[in-house]
Amino acid sequence: MGNVVVEVEKGTDELLNLEAKESSKSTFSLNYLSEMVRAASNLSDVVSLEFSTDMPVRLNFEMPSKGKLQYYLAPRIESA
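^ that's the sequence the OP posted. Answer follows.
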């Protein structure tokens, strides 16, 4: 168990576009996210990430002339 914070600056090569309608916060399994990215990283250089508070994250990997690959991952719900 641990925490990860990823910060990407606007206007850099790593971030092509950023749209935020509201502030959002969710917790996801880093193991599952890592496996998804590892599986698709050989197929695509660009990924779109969409999420909202307590909603599944959607990863869209664009594959030129081959379509796209989508993964969904439900957030972890912490019990009190």
